[in-house]
Amino acid sequence: MLSILFNILYALFSSISMLSLLPMIKILFDEGEKLKEKPVFHGIKDFDLSYFEDYLNYFITTKNDSQGPLITLIIVVCFVLSTFLLKNIFSYLSILYMTYLNNGILKDLRQDVYDKIISLNVGFFANERKGDLIARMTSDINTIKVSFMGVLMMVREPLTILFTLGGMFAISWKLTLFVLFFIPISGFLISKVSKNIKSQSGDIFAMEGHLLSNIEETLGGIKIIKNFTSESYFSKKFKDFTENINMLNNSIGKKMSLSAPASEFLGILVISVLLVYGGSLVLIDGSLSGGAFIAYMGLAYQILTPAKAITKANHALQGGNAAYERVAFILDAENPLKDKENAQVINEFKQEIKFTNVSFKYKEDYVLKDFNLTIPKGKTIALVGESGSGKSTLANLMTRFYDVHEGSITFDGINIKDVTTKSLRAQMGIVAQDSILFNDTLANNISLGIDEPKEEKIIAAAKVANAHNFISEFPNKYQNNVGDGGSLLSGGQRQRIAIARAVMKNPPIMILDEATSALDTESEKLVQNALENMMENRTSLVIAHRLSTIQNADLIVVMKRGRIVEQGTHEELLNMNGTYAHLVSLQSLEVNQVYHENI
């Protein structure tokens, strides 16, 4: 509200400041009727410009007679200065409050976009470039910020034009009608210049998103790029992006650069025509005084500044609209895994998790087909099989990163689609092959998602994960930073921190997705001991690549192409002499070969 008020006052005093020049001109050029009697005010209904002029002539006449023309001029100049001072004060206040409004709205928009991003399902990110999403959340929102400030200015400038036109009508309605005839013509010509800015801006934003994706991939794979000596390939790919962006930027820059000079020239053209037509009213017709004409020209010229500001704001608005469409893509994205209105909250795990006739596909081909499995409380269930058999997909479905297409998954007899995802995931801890750590302290990575964690519990979790000893060797111990993605730690250390994080969460169900497959033998032994410590008295789903790690599982499920081909204990499966026994023999052969190579 204050911003609107200050904008109105700014626009009002912009007109008054120019009109205030009129009495100064009358004094300097000794114009105006000499009135010694004060004009009578007959009420607001009869108020018009003639009363104002009469009162002004009366004021100048009496002041000249009593105090002289110089003192009168000083008084009038002080009045002019005060109107310009008020105009600039209100200009400052209006911009200040518009800035607060703009920054506040953009802060909320950033938060809304970020909250929406972290609320979307995992499948959304599988189809989008990470760099492009980052561009939408950063540079596109900054473009909206600049554009929105321009829009706020567009609220102020039309008011300035409106009040200025009011003053111009008061001085000469003939001249003002003449001005109004040219304004639509100028607006049409300027709009032709700014055509296609929005579509080209959208193209630039999309290409900058791809550029950011390219940078993100380059930084993430810098070792591979250097190892395969493919620097020139990536450099050329990046150069193609920048050249296309440069071409579009030049095209938009050409249009935007032309708009300001074009609008100013059209304005001066109108002023020039006014000088001729207005001059005829002063010199020939005599219906307009010289002082009033000079004040009128000041008002007419004053319209040029807000008109140019509106033109610039319109161009910014075109780019802002294109940027907002890209941001709205995130805000309007549907989350197919959104909780139902009356979703249940589960607080404990009592009996079992059951997969019943589950079928699932990421795109067209089914990854799982008519899958059935029961995971009883307190048991360790291991999943083995070739890559692509659907093992990790089961973990994704169980944690509801994706929803099944057919069949159902129940948690203690309740379909997981009928419970809140937050309460479901609170019952589960995950340790994956790729242990993702955040660029923060060891303590904060271990206590992730826990408010005000106690130090003794963090240390206890680290001890269970066999991580306390190596953490104690760091200079800042648990306050030591792990680096970007845990780059300051070895693979085994990162994995043990991930295990400590799962222990700290203390869920009743643990999901281990090939947690030791990427480790060397020594690290694997340490991590395996940590996993065994963690799985005590818990229900566990273990997805295993190395079969030696799951020999003590209560049930081993052998999968192939989304179906169960064998299941039983380690001994039972070996006695079947089927797929599992074949996998065990292959891995034993690999171990023997490695052993002989080493000696």
Tell me what the CATH architecture of the largest domain is.
Up-down Bundle
Count the DSSP helices. Answer: 22
What is the helix content?
55-70%
Biggest sheet: strand arrangement = 6-7-8-3-9-10
Here the CATH topology of the largest domain equals ABC transporter transmembrane region fold
- The best one-word shape is elongated
**Uncertain spans:** 590-599
Q: What is Rg?
A: 38 Å
The separation of the N and C termini measures 82 Å
CATH uppermost class of the largest domain:
Mainly Alpha
Find the CATH superfamily of the largest domain. ABC transporter type 1, transmembrane domain
Look at the helices and sheets and give the structural class: alpha/beta
DSSP, total strands: 10
Average residue pLDDT: 77
Strand content: 5-15%
Q: Indicate how many domains the architecture comprises.
A: 2
The largest pleated sheet is described as: 6 strands, mixed
Architecture overview:
The chain has 599 residues and is an alpha/beta fold. The chain folds into two domains: 2-331, ABC transporter transmembrane region fold, CATH 1.20.1560.10; 344-427 and 546-599, P-loop containing nucleotide triphosphate hydrolases (Rossmann fold, 3-Layer(aba) Sandwich). Helix content is 63%, strand content 10%. It has 22 helices and ten strands. The protein has helices spanning 2-19, 21-28, 49-67, 69-119, 122-126, 130-137, 139-171, 173-193, 197-220, 222-227, 231-285, 290-302, 304-331, 391-398, 421-426, 442-446, 455-464, 468-472, 491-505, 521-535, 570-576, 579-598; strands spanning 352-361, 366-376, 380-385, 406-411, 414-415, 428-432, 509-513, 539-543, 555-560, 563-568. A six-stranded mixed beta sheet has the order 6-7-8-3-9-10, with helices on both faces. β7 (509-513), α20 and β8 form a beta-alpha-beta unit. The radius of gyration is 38 Å and the shape is elongated. It starts with a helix and ends with a helix. The model is unreliable at 590-599 (pLDDT under 50).
